[in-house]
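Revision sheet: structure tokens.
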Amino acid sequence: MFNGGKIRQVRKEKGLTLQELAQRTGLSPSLISQIERQRVDPTVSTFWKICSSLNIPLNFFFEGRSEESFVVRKERRRIVELADANVKYHDLTPPNKSGTADFILVEIQPGNKTKPELISHAGEECGYILQGSLKVFLGDKAFDLHEGDSIYFPSTTPHRYMNTGNEVSISLWAMNLK
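Predicted:
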């Protein structure tokens, strides 16, 4: 939840008056005061002006939200590796997310030539091939995708993907698991 009181706290820590912050932002002192007292919620544009003028990130003003709520650092990324399938799933979504979408980087080594078992689940998926190629089995169809190609489908359709090429396949997937 947005906490306007933090604007007052940061403004005072930086030694700024309402008038000085108003001059920096182009907003009225009255509006800033009302936002600080949580009498009004700022528009996105107003909020951006205040954050920029105070030189602080937007997420600073949301209670209970740290960097880890928004950012997944490469070295702290959770990876699930399936050795017998030559697949690594890199979870690009923060572990304490509140929504239903997942963002995953899928890395598949070449050499998996057997047709995998199809799966289905609630939701929808959209994939984009960053490197190599990927064969996507979707119901009774198979699609050969290459670097720069993308695919979208409802996850209730039985599906699976595999690397039938000669190099590592890397793809990005957005999945809404409703």
